[in-house]
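In the lab's daily routine, each protein ends up as an entry in a very long ledger. A line of letters takes care of the sequence, but it says nothing directly about the fold. The fold becomes a row of whole numbers, each drawn from a learned catalogue of backbone shapes. The protein below has been through that process, and both of its lines are reproduced in full:
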Amino acid sequence: MRTLLLAIPMCFMAAVAMAADLPKVGDVAPEFEMTGTDGKVYKTKDFVGKQAVVIAWYPRAFTGGCTKECKSFKEASGELKDFQVAYFTASTDPVDYNTKFAESLGLDYPILSDPEGKNAKSFGVLRPDGKAANRVTFVIGSNGKLLMVDDKVKTESHAKDIVGQLEKLGVPRKASK
């Protein structure tokens, strides 16, 4: 009984600690530089002044929730591509592991890799053991500031939820051809 009573506050404290470490809406987004499963290196400066960015952090490739979340981005890619936004999922898995994961799902967008956890730490999502990221999604405006921080992700519908948020946030749509 004593163990259970101690476990509840510890879990609560861990959740509060993560929330306290997360950057907040309106903050300048953390700088990032990560390699994608397409072999390209993506940096903050590639997007500031040009378009919004979605980075959806997940814990581990080839796991149930992460698979559902990444598939949701593939399924909503048409709607996401209507916006002036670059979108990525990201983890602390190595590039080659994420590449195999992306290929297994037939993804049409790059997964970003942060094997040292440097970027995950700056985003406040690195777990205390330093081995994985918490599931948190950030929308960064073209001005480099955070428009949204979502730490209550529903994996199966996440990308559709993001589409709705992009609409609410007023992220511009691409011009019709």
About this structure: Residues 5 and 11 are 11 Å apart (CA to CA). The chain has one domain: 2-169.
